Amino acid sequence: MTQVNMLEAKTDLSRLVRMLETKQEEVIYLARNGKAVVQMTLIPQRSVSKRIGIAEGKFTVPDDFDSWDQEVEEMFGGEL
C-alpha cells in the first residue's frame, strides 16, 4: 500500500499507474491533507466472450424471409 498526496499524484501519475501494472503495488491511496480520499487499483481483466455466432442454432430463417424485397423496392422506385 502506497499513499501519495495530490500534488505528487498529479506529477507522477504515469509512474503510479506503472507501479500498479507491474504489481509493485496492489492499491495506491491519494491523500488530501494527509487523509486518504481516493483509492487507485487496476481494473480487473475480463475474459472476452465469443460474440460472433452466439445465436447459431437458436432460430431458423423462414423461406419467405426476403419476399417483401420486391415490394419495398417498388415503393422507393428503385432496383436491387
Number of helices: 3
Nearest-integer average pLDDT: 88
| Residue fraction in strands | 15-25%
**Number of E strands:** 3
**Rough outline:** elongated
Order of helices and strands: EHHEEH
| Whole-angstrom Rg | 28 Å
Q: Roughly how much helix do the residues carry, as a percent range?
A: 25-40%
Query: What does the largest sheet look like?
Result: 3 strands, mixed
Determine the N-to-C terminus distance. Answer: 65 Å
How would you describe the overall organization of this protein?
With 80 residues, the protein is of the alpha+beta class. It has a domain at 2-40. Helix content is 29%, strand content 19%. It is built from three helices and three strands. The chain has helices at 6-11, 13-21, 69-76; strands spanning 2-5, 28-32, 35-40. Strands 1-2-3 form a three-stranded mixed sheet. Strand 2 (28-32) and strand 3 (35-40) form a beta hairpin. The relative contact order is 0.13. The model has no long low-confidence stretch (mean pLDDT 88).
